Amino acid sequence: MRHEYLAAIDACSRKISERGEFTLDFMKLKGSLSLKIGDFDTARQLYMDVLRLKPLALGQDGAGQGAG
Q1: What is the mean pLDDT of residues 49-57?
Q2: What is the residue extent of each domain of the chain?
């Protein structure tokens, strides 16, 4: 099973290096896969990079607003 995770992580790394439309999605997926294999440092760095590139914008889409 670990071999499949490592292959998926490598595939994500290739897609991330292409800097395409879904780069952030591949970064998040790679972070999730890294957690599954116990690579917590890599996962943390990836999630921090995602937040640095696209900060959470709670409330900007109206999701955090009351019905008033």
Answers
A1: 83
A2: 2-53
